[in-house]
Amino acid sequence: MTALAVVSGGLRQPSSTRLLADRIDSAVRKEFADSGVMATSTFVELRPLGRAIMDAMLAGFAAPELEAAFETIASADGVIVVTPAFNASFSGLFKSFFDVLPEDTLSDMPILIAATGGTERHSLVLEHALRPMFSYLHAIVSPTGVYAATDDFGAASGLAERIQRSAADFVRLMTSCGTRTRRDTFNEELTQMTRLLTGVHPADGQVED
């Protein structure tokens, strides 16, 4: 069983960002099914979490609903992220969510990036904003993202083919990465601190020079 987390940063209801997230998620799960692997998805909608995200930024503590969103992402085998584009970048809410996401949550995590926008002029948001941010967070970004302008929905624009191509690339990436091992950052920091204080590596008991 493969677990997917889908983060939708749509700000309106109904949301073209959520619509794109749904279509990508369906394509990815179908791609897995065609290869004999069952995949399940859990959606994380950022709009209802807006207040909790801001509170976490100001107070440094996450509300239970935000902690649940963090856990959904941390326990996933792969993540699909979709944001609306404003002024050639991601939305403030989308960026704020990943600002408060605990460090190393996305380390070694396969990610498929996608965005929506009013016109094709924003399409470089994938390569200029999303890919660098997730690379900085040590995620493994799938080579093919999806951008959808307003005119792409309900028209023969090739969006379906782009979604299918990105889903195939993402599944191939996840398959190549194998089973993801969730990092235990608490014990990693404890080990590092013990080494600094005592000069002894807890794993093998050897004293460092």
Describe this entry's structure for a reader.
This protein has about 210 residues and is of the alpha/beta class. The protein has helices at about 15-35, 50-60, 65-75, 90-100, 125-135, 160-175, 185-200, and strands spanning about 1-10, 40-45, 80-85, 90, 110-115, 140, 145-150. Strands 1, 2, 3, 4, 5, 6 and 7 form a 7-stranded mixed beta sheet that branches. Helix 1 (about 15-35) crosses helix 6 (about 160-175) and helix 2 (about 50-60) crosses helix 4. The chain starts with a strand and ends in an 11-residue tail after the last helix.
Defining traits:
7 strands; alpha/beta; 209 residues; 7-stranded mixed beta sheet; globular
The averaged pLDDT comes out at 90
**Over all CA atoms, what is the radius of gyration?**
19 Å
Q: What helical percentage do the residues reach?
A: 40-55%
Taken in chain order, the helices and strands follow as EHEHHEEHEHEEHH
For the terminal residues, how far apart are their CA atoms?
A: 46 Å
What characterizes the major β-sheet? 7 strands, mixed
Annotation field: number of helices? 7
Q: Which spans have pLDDT < 50 for at least 5 consecutive residues?
A: none
Number of beta strands: 7
What is the 3D shape?
globular
Percentage of residues in strands: 15-25%
Q: Helix/strand/pairing class, anyone?
A: alpha/beta
